[in-house]
User: What shape does this take?
Amino acid sequence: MPDAIPLLRASSLRFSYGIRPAVQGVSVSLAAGEFVAVLGPNGSGKSTLMKLLLGQLRGEGDVAWEGKPLREWPRRELARRLAYLPQNPAYDPDQTVADVIRLGRAPYWGAFGLETRHDLQVVTNIVAELGLQELVDRGMNELSGGQRQRVFIGRCLAQEPAAMLLDEPNTFLDLKHQVELCTLLKALTRERSIGVLMASHDLNLAGAFADRLILLHEGGVAADGGADVVFREELLSRVYGLPIRRIEGGGGISVVVPVG
Assistant: This one.
């Protein structure tokens, strides 16, 4: 049997801000039902890579979603297949939770932004799935950081996407909400076969939940694989510029900690 076409296949991506290279020869793939975390220090190219994969930036190299080159996807059709959560999602403080989640259906709206019965049902289902029933009529400015981030995930899910690209979604969340978010993302990959590509600063959280890790360094791929491949002391110490030690925990889980 031929291999299944991956959701994403990108090769030899390059992009520079002026004379400063941001992404250098990066290749990345994502399969349906796979949770991949992109790691690396500030300036390693994580956010730029996300924008290249979405077509928000144009550089060198090839990007294909579901076997079709990115340049051949109509924007509206692509928005039905890919959901993107930036580092600082914009919202109107006067919008309710329901309003924000409903915006995820925008790529499906007909003329004049009219919603169908299916659009309304999708929003209702997501509110229930994410446990947002008690918040649905609240304004976004009334929510905690963790609640707000859950709403933004709901907006992504309302697109009924094949893949979700999340740029450091754990920023500003406490540890409990970080774990809850990663648990949710892991469940979505298993239950809906959604491919998740998440940029993250948290090595240990990514190592605990992601199926595969991609470590970026100065715009290039320093390692791509499981935690056993990426969590190497010499490699991480070089990439992050400080001594890092790997500690073996129970259940085959490894954690890494800075030394000194």
Notes: DSSP finds nine helices and twelve strands in the chain. The first strand starts at residue 8 and ends at 17. The chain has a mean pLDDT of 92. The radius of gyration is 19 Å.
